[in-house]
Amino acid sequence: MINLCNETLGRGRYKIAPPQPPAEFINDNSLDIIFAYSVFSHLSEETAENWIKEFSRILRPGGIFIATTQARYFLDFCQQFKEHPELIQTGWHKTLSQAFPDINRAISDYESGNFVHSPTGAGDVRNSSFYGETVIPRTYIKNHYEKYLKLRDFFDDANRLPQALFVLQKD
Question: Can you give the pTM of this predicted structure?
Answer without folding.
Answer: 0.92
